[in-house]
Fold this sequence. Notes:
ATP-binding; Rossmann fold; kinase; five-stranded parallel β-sheet; dephospho-CoA kinase activity
Amino acid sequence: MPKMIGLTGSIASGKSTVSNMLKDRGFTILDADIAARVVVEPGQKAYHQIIETFGHEIVNSDDTINRSKLGSIIFNDEEKRKMLNSIVHPTVRECLNDWKIQALEEGKKTIIYDIPLLYESNLTYLVEKVVVVFVDEDVQLKRLLNRNGLTEEEALARIRSQLPLREKKERADAVIDNNGTIDETERQVNELITNWKLEP
Ligand SMILES: CC(C)(COP(=O)(O)OP(=O)(O)OC[C@H]1O[C@@H](n2cnc3c(N)ncnc32)[C@H](O)[C@@H]1O)[C@@H](O)C(=O)NCCC(=O)NCCS
Ligand SMILES: Nc1ncnc2c1ncn2[C@@H]1O[C@H](COP(=O)(O)OP(=O)(O)OP(=O)(O)O)[C@@H](O)[C@H]1O
């Protein structure tokens, strides 16, 4: 049985940065954000449910979901966020499970779940150990503003829609501090691989 590892953090804390480093070293990453994009493509079950719930105004002219519009609705309204989660999350779990089965068939020694809402959605049962990618809130806000072109108010609403990152840090089996340079983060990723004896 391979080692099952959870990789989490909060919005813009650096999960993708760390998971790309792990991918470069040959590790298999099951990415919940990617799964959440696949399951809302036109024709998929969740796609129709989202339109029934949020209306045709969140559909682009090419029939895809307008993620920016849907984001501005759900990050400002907890009830609507819960509605979207209840549509999307079950199909995300199914998608991740299909990918896991494939990775098992391929004989991988380590399977890494990259799940931003690992703690919020009580998914820790999927993994043996959790690593949290941590940044201070001011760094997180600055990086989120730079990356997504949101207003400060929109960025803060996104940060507050998740469990505080310091609480995730307290629950973690290991923490990667991503406040510093990319090189400093890379060094911690290498240490983690050594300490946990991880092999692809
Ligand atoms: C609202 C949507 C359309 C916004 O899309 P957008 O392309 O702008 O963002 P993206 O999907 O890349 O998500 C960026 C980050 O936002 C955070 N986030 C996304 N959804 C949620 C949510 N429901 N609750 C809290 N944080 C969330 C995560 O940290 C994620 O890494 C999209 O995030 C979505 O469909 N969310 C619901 C599914 C979900 O919960 N995904 C998270 C992993 S399962
Ligand atoms: N150590 C670092 N130094 C400078 N910039 C960084 C560092 N780590 C990440 N970034 C930048 O910060 C932003 C957020 O990082 P990343 O996309 O990896 O976070 P994430 O946790 O995957 O985000 P999300 O959950 O929102 O998708 C990106 O623009 C990334 O290039």
